[in-house]
What does this fold into?
Amino acid sequence: MAKATLPAPVPTDPVELLATPLARSGLAAGALLRRAGIRLGFYTVRDLLFHLPRRYDDLREMRKLGDLVWVEDGTVVSARVRVADMRVEPTFRRRVQRTIARLEDETGSVDATWFGRRFIERRLHVGGEVVVSGRVKHFGRRLTFDNPEFQTVGGDEAEVLHAGRIVPVYPLTAGLTAARLRTAIREALDRAGHAYPEYLPVPILLEEGLVPIVRAVEEAHYPESFEGRDAALRRLAFDELLALQLGMVARRRQRIRDAAPVVDVDDASDAGIRTSLTNALSARIGRTVELTPDQAAAMSAIRDDIALATPMLRLLQGDVGSGKTAVAGYALAATARAGLQGALLAPTDLLARQHLETIGGLLEGLGLGVTLLTGSLPADTKAKAADALRSGQAAVVVGTHALIQESVAFRDLGLVVIDEQQRFGVDQRAQLEAKAGGRSPHVLLMTATPIPRTLGQLFYADLDVSDLRTPPAGRVPIRTGIRRPSELDGTWQKVREEAAAGHRTFVVVPLIEESGDESDGSVAAESEAIRLTTLLAPLRVGLVHGRIKPAERDAEMTRFRDGDLDVLVGTTVVEVGVDVPAATMMIVEGADRFGLAQLHQLRGRVGRGSIGSFCVLVSDSADEVAQARLKAVAELRDGFELAERDFELRREGDVLGVAQSGLPRLRVASLQDAAHRKLAVRARAHAEMLLDADGRLEPPRPALAAELESGWLRRVAAAEPASGV
It folds into this structure.
């Protein structure tokens, strides 16, 4: 007979309890919390303590019931009362009942009503004393509380959690009630929160005026005052920012100590590469072009960077069409001429193939070929490409995630170029860099989503940054307008006129298929393509979206580029990878559902030549912020200015800009808060002082190291900002 396995004993030491999984914590709601934690992201008692409220309700104002007749309808008040009567009544809605309690004190009485909450009658008992908090409603001369919060009380006022105080309101999930979660967090605070180890050095606490971590953890959940809450959240925001800055500084210092191949580009070679690139660009466009001042400066900076034995880490950011590919071509050419290999990593098969064409054309005059390696290639073609990389025959390769597969090896990788770098995680970038054979390659990161200056100052201080702000010569500004769906007759007529002139139109929609919810205002690509085929007949309408096989999608885009289609309907797959100089109109339906950076990049799909082009943003949203964002796109043509406006307009909790920039999601700190931005700067200064030249804590600080490794800060410390450092 198998011997039964005894459950692990519940830790009695508070510090040990912090690291204990919730199911073995001995908390009254441990099993329920374990299930909820899978969805909400808490697994241990320590995690539970940092499942912070999303807001706080001020339910402190205690009133006598006799005074409520003078209270304005809808005012939130609290009262300590006795339950005089209880009854349950049916309602007009099937299976929904309402529970009514008659509440009294020495000055009067009031009814409290709950709909569909049958557990109320099990928790309230006639004669019992409760603290109740809710909105007062007047029905003639009768008063009522509508669905109020309440808690039964005895003689211990400190045990009141749900009413009559500043009450925390948490993110919840199915099966976990607010009252149950508050009670569980209170129990965790009582059993372990009071012993939370202080991990910040005392000098930092004093210099920054921060409250101790024990107090911060307590008052982040159950503050006695809003001043106490603010002090607690300021401490936690600083800790979060410090963890992020420590990770960035450590990775930067570790990286610059690595050896990188020296790529010495002499003046003659530099001039030859630039001349060849401008000749290729001129031949492609059909007229003589020169490098913009920003492109020339970026190439010079890269030349200086790769001449050092320290690995380059440079961010190249600029609008769609600002010339980033030419700069990347310079870096790849210089590396290949030095006998090393260069790899360009793209996020999609479509964009990789676009780079194969453009980079290949740029380097052809230098006698350099470009190899393609993507997951969609036939097996024998992939095998040949992998052999060419392994032998060194392929000096320049363009590919997707297929480049980072374990089976892919390089003979001598010297440069890694990451396009749309915010779409890659640190592990993916590290896997490609690790193929340099024991040393660090030079790294050039590229993005068409400029980072707001405020974010850059805080989170990109370790990066060398080159901005391409000067548009190529001859580029005609794109006229941008906002229209309601009912105002598009003139727009569709303009599409017909452009088609008659040999020009083409993009129509971008937010969804692939109908959602079944007409209220969301979304338009599906497939149904819109069918509608426009009829509306715009005899114009030829094509369709692309992410669920179409890459080969079919590429074929459709090729037809559009070559003029076999007049209109291309698609989702945001057209955001990158499609270069159609004859495209002069971009129509974005449901434009309020897109981010500003997306809208700006979509707009950049047209106006690629010297022909006047148009962008129409279609939206019927009445939301003021949505309209302000669309107006910003219409008014601003500079992606850098637009990034700043996006940051200003972004509402709290909206992660659009941060998510697109690749920055980690902050849980406490808010980059829209000027005070928190100052905290980030100060946290950076402390991180510089806490780490030695190798990126290690010096002197060793076991408590801080433990918190970074296994505490609530671990996700922030492990998160990778877009800089990749």
